[in-house]
## 1
Amino acid sequence: MRYEDETTLRKIGEVLPSELAQVEGTVTSSEVAYRPRRQWLVKIADDGHELVLRFLNFYGSQQKQLSPGTRVRARGEVRGGFFGLEMVHPSYRVVTDDQALPDALTPVYPSAAGLSQAYLRRAIANAIDRTPLPELLPPGLVEAAIGPEHALPPLAAAVRLLHAPPPDVSETALSERSHPAWLRIKCEELLAQQLSLKRAQAARRRLAAPALGARVPGGLLERFEAALPFRLTGAQQRVWTEIRDDLGAPHPMQRLLQGDVGSGKTIIAALAAAQAIDAGYQAAIMAPTEILAEQHLRKLSAWLAPLGVGLAWLAGSMKAKEKREALARVASGEAKLVIGTHAIIQDTVAFDRLGLAVVDEQHRFGVAQRLALRSKMQSSGGDAMPHQLMMSATPIPRTLAMTYYADLDVSVIDELPPGRSPVLTKLVSDSRRDEVVERVRAAALSGRQVYWVCPLIEESEALQLQTAVDTHAQLVAALPELRVGLVHGRLSPAEKAAVMEDFTRGDTHLLVATTVIEVGVDVPNASLMVIEHAERFGLAQLHQLRGRVGRGSAESVCLLLYASPLSMGAKARLQTMRETTDGFVIARRDLEIRGPGEFLGARQSGAAMLRFVDLNEDAWLIPGAQEAADTLLRAHPQAVTAHLERWLGAREDFLKA
């Protein structure tokens, strides 16, 4: 965590108040005082000058240890006390008269109750002595990756230096992790990650997949394209060409389709599914929530069912009889397109011939679920792996795309469909709540629909927030002329579906909701959104929620209601939302504010995160690590295996998920 400098000693007579110092002296008195509270006072003297060591928490064994006449070395902040200079709760050790000072800074490690720093230091120093860290990489490889201006130590020397730095090392370079020893560690870690991903990509290229590229004259894809009521944008055309080419290859596609909220990713998934079905295979589309999965079902049914495509729905809330029938239709191949939640990857689901799996908002699934999907795909129908398309409305910042997503091909839809109006975002203090309610009334009476989003369902003592249930009751009372709906995660799927259906049809003017509407809800007539306690939401979530309006041609507004005072982070998030609607700018700021966990869903595993590399500070190391990984894979395969074993061991699978 940090270091303490125990390599120098100061005379007691020379130290000054507010100074952090290490002194040495002989104990002249040791007594427990009871006023104003129980405390232990130890006086030490050196050349006639005295200093008091004051302890508020102590044990009898410590008192025996520091009896009068004992020589002690103490380190802490010097303060002016009632009896002269003192240190409160200093770190100390009993020493002999001629005991040498340490020749390195003393490390301080994260600890837990009952685990002392002295024990940890001994155990870690012992482990370092017993562990050989031979150089596994070809000489000069890491140095070439980082550039000739950085002289890096060997790995073993870097590890030893970081655990016991000499006193002349810059403490700033150590704490900022810019010292050459840190750079060595970071380069090796990044290299292991790049090797793992590139090796996974190469292994996938060796797998067989059904080639779904042949165009069928008069087939489903052709009829679907002809029936579309709109033209694809230039970006959608480009992305569709990339995906169609991948589907025609004899190895599995693994492509990430990025597109901002409302950019039209679902139509691309539908085209890919049509191509798979034309080739005689099944397609599956999996979403993280039932509301989002139902939204896909509604859209794709409207597009593909009239063209004779058999669809199946799979979700955890289904009745046993419905589920049995759906499973039978999937297993027989009668259902060409399967849509649902993670129920799709359960053991009971067997596909006839799965050719394409589409995963929407894949970072919302846990790592274990993503690994289950991967193994489900590997075991479906013979030796061939299905193609996989992942979709995300949370744009991935470039540094993440170069590290965690390095084994994926990435397609980006970077333009919105014509007719979409940008959403105007305003920040409003919750002291002006009555004005906001009036604005909602005016919008609803003019024929527009409104969302009102709340962060919690029921009151929590820890977070005294306006909740969905209370807000619904208040708005019903305040707006008697409007029909006000309520949707949240604790409603049954049937109740949720009924409320959403009413809103989609236009029967409900105002929908009070929790974040269950964050993804997938598409109501073009909704042009006003109020987000209550916006300071409590993350940037990606605010951006997703705002994307539920602005889907029609009317000018749309998003009001962010906030409670003062705002923390620095909340202020930065709300400011970003007001300044930009560009998902990529928002994603970059989000990475700066919160780090990569949110994009990766890695909080759910903890195992896949880079432990030493900071993607904001260390992005400059990535290109060199990628080049070094290519060199190693091409010319030194044994070094690759040894390096991955050292750095990742059994965690390599988590990276791939």
## 2
Amino acid sequence: MGLLDGQFVPALDGVAYGLLLFVVAAGLSLAFGTAGVLNLAHGTLYAAGAYTGAELSDGTWGGLLLGLLVGTAVACAAGVLLSVATAPLAHRGHLAQALLTFGLSLIGGTLLIEFFGADQVPVRVPEALDSSVTLLGHRYPAYRLCFIVMAVALAAIGTWVLTRTRAGAAIRASADDSEMLAATGVNPRLVHTGVLAAAGALAGAAGVLGAPIIGPGPGTAETVLMLSLVVVVLGGLRNLWAIAGAAIVVGQVQTLGVSLVPGWAPYLLFGAMAVVLVVRSRRATATGTAGSQVGARTGAADPIGWLREQLRLFVAPFAAPLAQLGRRVGSNTAAVPGAVRRGLPPAVLVVALAALPWIVDAYALSLVGYALALGLLAVSVTVVTGYAGLPTLGQTAPFAVGAYTTAVIADAGWTVGPVQIVVAAFAAGLFCLVTGPAVIRARGTTVLMITLAVGELTVVAIDQLKSITGGTDGLVGFPGPQLLPGSAELIEEMEVYHYALVVAVIAVAVTMLMLRSPAGRLLIGVHGAEERMRASGHPVDRYLLLAYVGAGALAGVGGSLMAHVRQYISPADVGFEIAAFALLAAVIGGTVSVLGALFGAALIVLTRDWVAASWPGYGPLLLGVLFVLTVYLLPRGLAGLRGTPRERAGGGTGGDADGVAGNGTGPGGGTDDGDGTDDGAGGADGLNSKAEAVR
């Protein structure tokens, strides 16, 4: 009883905190589950309401009411604008929406700081609520009790509106069958706008009422968004009471969990989110993949032999394509002139990059080195998103593994650069081998959410393992790399830059070689015609897992370079923002162009660190504008500005900015199922257009 009595106040705080998250998550669920918009600007709408309410609060009931009305109206208007902004993206999938709304959140966050300042804003509540009441022998803030009552009432009213009114029926019909709704005389577009307006209003009202609990300040929008995403994943999209229950669980973890098990609490939220997503994705694919599982037998009799057999089955599909690649390279001498022509632009680029130390200053050179590291991360995103068809927001996880592995082994005396690269790639690849099975079975938005959870769990682990990673303080002062054992440490900016350039060129060359090989074409076939590949007996899951592990190893190499180029690593260098930047870089390139992804990374670093230096404080605004322009102006990235010859002739598509493969059809209407045969006259053009984009 003593323990329960001592934890009464934290538990009640968890209820209040959870119900606040419920109000926010209800709006996020409404936007995503009904309007189909993955709104990563939802936390910014909360912050807009919170700032507005705090600015208008003067300690009176009139000030509270005015703040509630204005804050709700501002966020509601932002929801309407969001509906207009996302309308052109209706047929481009959730990835384009996520990038657009993330860019809008960067712009909105900068504007809020411009208007309200960067400091924490105090919130004044009416005197009657600015007191404590006695509850079961404990003193507790009256405002929080009042908020609990209002949130429960909101859940009841919201459920009644959605289930018992004509407006709720129209909302449900819009989500289930918008064409049928239009046939009844109701404009689905109007319903879509109303849903996003209502979702914005919920976020704004939550911001005003929740400001005394989660006050407006730096990082508020990101915190609220992440926790709301967890709530929506755990509670689902349609049932408000389930969302409320999930929100209370999250609130308890954030308050009571931290009080009782502080060492485990940070892992619980995103861990639970990942588990729920994996279970749901496996249920969704269980029926479709039940007939395609190979070798599902136990190894109780001979576990060592069983493991060897599994390894042989895993590697066997790639042995023949790689052997064929070797024969083709050795015998096809007629292709050399064409290969030289294709290799000339990259060669000129490498020469220009090598000459930079004699052209630019040390700061600019360090930015180019960092762009190379971020570029490898973007290329790994290109492999996973553009070729494997798994849009990812968590590729910073293996990137972080590679970076911290390099720093830790450098401190331990393993300072030979090539050794560090190999160890970092191996560690990152092993990490992806462990997490890969949870990713490759999912598709679409579920992949985004699972990889986001993996990335956030990695950041949490970095924060917690302070003895190894330095926690939030990061790691600094580790030795630089050596080219060979016993050689001098690379300290000078030029030396480190050239080291990073050589490693990046080799890594990119190997990646392009693999993507152009028959193994890479198999991966393209999986993306373009997965069901046919499965039906023809291809081990699709092994292909995807190998691509995911290889991309993770590449990200680990990028992390290793980043550690030496920056000479400092912190969780901020491998967090959600960097994951979004890497995804944007891949989208700028077209999600199918390796060199395009490198260019996208360079453009992001140029915007964030060089252009923004001339405009202090407006870096996020510039990046937000870059996100928005990329989504609207480059729907298929730079690679889509000029269709490939096959694509122009045949009309097939290899993918768009969302990383979703086209149907791979040409004039003949045929499709390439990835087994080396063309089922129609123009079928291979759509899939092959991807391979030609690797330039």
